[in-house]
């Protein structure tokens, strides 16, 4: 199957819903839609922004080796 380069607006909403509401991993959603997982991430960020959710930004790992998540306003 040839990979697509973009999600349609409807697919963006479906992908974001599947990840944000249902908790499905983004790489699984990307495989179902035939796109790069970055496209699903972009869709989730756009929907979070449109709904007024705070954005998340990952920084360097903390001393225990786990990523630190900083929550910022959009």
Write the layout of secondary structure elements.
Blueprint: H1 9-20, H2 26-33, H3 37-51, E1 55-61, E2 67-72
Antiparallel strand pairs: 1-2
Helix pairs in contact: 1-2, 1-3, 2-3
Descriptive notes:
The protein has one domain (9-72): Arc Repressor Mutant, subunit A (Orthogonal Bundle), CATH 1.10.10. It has 3 helices and 2 strands; from the N terminus they run αααββ. A hairpin with a 5-residue loop joins β1 and β2 (67-72). It is α+β, with helices and mostly antiparallel strands and 74 residues long. The mean pLDDT is 81. The chain is 47% helix and 18% strand. The chain has helices spanning 9-20, 26-33, 37-51, and strands at residues 55-61, 67-72. α1 packs antiparallel against α2 (26-33), α1 (9-20) packs across α3 (37-51) and α2 (26-33) crosses α3 (37-51).
